[in-house]
Design goal:
Blueprint (H helix, E strand, L loop, with lengths): L7 E3 L10 H16 L2 E5 L7 H19 L3 H4 L21 E7 L4 H11 L5 H28 L4 H10 E10 L10 E7 L4 E6 L4 E4 L6 E3 L7 E6 L1 H6 L8 E5 L6 E10 L2 E2 L32 E2 H9 L9 H6 L3
Helix pairs in contact: 1-5, 2-5, 4-5, 5-6
């Protein structure tokens, strides 16, 4: 474990207005953090909120998580979906400490109520209200970060508009229990990078670790205030940026002596992830002397445009050689 800190970017300022010095500074800070670390802590209230509303939001969403996981296992296993990785995870021999459920389209009242009705046949209004409120604030942060990323790279505004239209949000609730015996593994989730565009997490207690950018050590994500979120780049965003942004490799280690909860909102493109032409070129043609022609964009594309849900299905089906190299196997340029 190393003492290196994760970058912090304050996106809560009421002066964070497009085109202002505050906005330009935020663009620089977010881009630097994502390129060097693949993540950062964002201070964000959302919707004109403040520290008081953030505390209430924090308390409410973790109360909802506790209520959800208190349900019988057979009830939680009703969380099914035709979309890969949008369903229940648990009772795993590989990660026995971990259980997770997913709410598809969690900013939608209709979709969230539909999920709640499966878990609680009589409905659960407070769960729905907490889930929708948290998801709307987190989705607002996600969209702010994506707009900043697009503008910092000088990417055509159409890419951001497409993201707003095509982003399919999923909210995952996680519970990690304490190992029952001294000899049991304390690994909640093994080291991996998400396959999302962006994942935004909030945790109840410590346990999340981020791989340090320059070596094989790990940085523990310390206690987070109710107004802070961990923003992580997924492999899809790494591909979208033509390798400029690092995907955030992370793991969960249960070092505390109490149950750990976390909540994470991830964005998956419902359709094709298009790689902006401003960020690279295809080095498929050679000039007369056999040398690859260099273009002004300066960096050949690593990946072709790809169907995001197709990538997830490629992994789920077992076609991928391994999880870590799946995106290169699926859409990498040979």
């Amino acid at each position: 474990m190393v003492t290196e800190t994760i970058p912090v970017v304050d996106l809560s300022s009421k002066n964070l207005i497009h085109g202002t010095p505050t906005w330009v500074s935020a663009c620089n800070d977010v881009r630097k953090a994502m390129e060097q670390h693949g993540c950062f802590k964002a201070i964000f209230y959302g919707g004109g909120g403040d520290s008081s509303s953030s505390t209430q939001l924090h308390n409410d969403i973790f109360a909802a998580a506790g209520e959800l996981f208190s349900l019988p296992t057979e009830t939680k296993q009703r969380n099914t979906s035709s979309k890969p990785y949008f369903d229940y995870f648990g009772q795993s021999q590989l990660f026995p400490l971990t259980e997770s459920l997913a709410v598809d389209h969690p900013t939608s009242s209709l979709a969230t109520r539909s999920f709640a009705d499966v878990m609680w046949p009589a409905g659960n209004l407070s769960f729905c209200e907490s889930t929708i409120s948290f998801s709307k604030v987190t989705a607002e942060l996600d969209q702010t970060v994506m707009r900043i990323i697009c503008e910092s790279y000088g990417v055509d505004g159409g890419h951001y508009e497409y993201y707003l239209e095509a982003a399919n949000y999923v909210l995952r609730f996680y519970r990690y229990t304490v190992p029952k015996t001294a000899g049991e593994s304390n690994v909640g989730l093994g080291a991996h990078a998400d396959k999302s565009m962006i994942s935004i997490l909030r945790q109840s207690i410590r346990g999340l670790q981020i791989k340090a950018p320059d070596d094989d050590s790990w940085v523990e994500v310390d206690e987070m205030s109710p107004s802070s979120f961990l923003v992580m780049a997924g492999d899809a965003l790494m591909a979208w940026s033509n390798g400029r942004i690092k995907s955030c490799r992370h793991q969960v280690i249960m070092s505390e002596k109490e149950t750990r909860y976390s909540v994470g909102l991830s964005s998956v493109i419902n359709g094709v992830v298009h790689i902006p032409t401003e960020l690279g070129y295809y080095s498929s043609s050679n000039d007369d002397d056999g040398e690859v022609e260099e273009e002004e964009s300066g960096k050949p594309f690593r990946c072709r445009a790809f169907d995001h849900f197709g990538l997830l299905q490629f992994i789920r089906s077992g076609e991928a050689k391994n999880y870590d190299s799946a995106i290169q196997d699926y859409c990498g340029v040979v």
